[in-house]
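Sat 14:20. Reprocessing the chain from the morning session after the first attempt stalled halfway. Input below, unchanged.
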Amino acid sequence: MNKKLALSIDIGGTNCAYGLVDSLGEIHYENSVETATFGEAIKFVSFLKQDEEIYNSLNQIIGIGIGAPNGNHFTGEIQFAPNLPWEKGIIPIKNYFETEFQIPTILTNDANAAAEGEKLFGSAKELENFIVITLGTGLGSGIYINNEILYGSNGLAGEFGHIRVVKNGRQCKCGRNGCLETYASSSGIIRSFEEFKADYSSSSLYDEKTIKAKMIFKHAINGDSFAKFLVDYTANILGNALADFTAFSDPQAYILFGGIAQSGEYFRSLVQNYFDQNSLNIYKNKVQILNSNLHDKNAAILGNAASIFKRIKY
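Finished this time. Tokens:
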């Protein structure tokens, strides 16, 4: 294999996925590791350098693309990411990788990377104005306006998960209360379970030893009333928030990506319903809620690789 490759890395609060991708979007190697395995970011960098597949492909790698929560595209730093179990504050992740690998590195917000992947390979190929909503441990957004990703003046645009939607609501890891991601995310729906379980005397969820977000959606689809309430409650808050956010950039579509979006049409249709009910009249019937069609692939991995092939000459 003599193709030029990008080393693509998606750093998440729960898992770090990584892979080797060519310029046509073919993933030649892919793997993941739990983020909490490493107490410090630099240890994760060293771990990747020792990965046999990556080590054996170093002469083909033209660049390293990283997507991370609170990733500042301009400075190359992860800045105060509340959901990362590594050192807090500012992490100079780009510098770590360029020092260890001696390969050009580009950092972006993880949701921006997912948006790049959707634009090149997924549901947004024909769209010029759209927003990808990543629903993982937290909630992020990658914003495309007039066919360009929006970075903002400090490289930190798209922190939609930290728009406050409930006054004096749940404590968020960012230090504030009522942020959207404390309700509409994998961790958010589990917090809803804990908050409302006293209101339901019986539920098939109580038979489970450990409550996980995917499990709640599975039980909801199977008709459990408590699980259905939890999914509806989550969709209501997200749909309302998206209805308000539409006034910002007038997107053609929102694309739902990540763990809880993988329940498919069930959750998507609920979010669309609440969105339609609460949108301004000028946006009625103009904005679609779509599911990513890259769930069987990895939009973030593809998106980080795309940023390399778009910006680095080879």
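The first strand starts at residue 5 and ends at 11.
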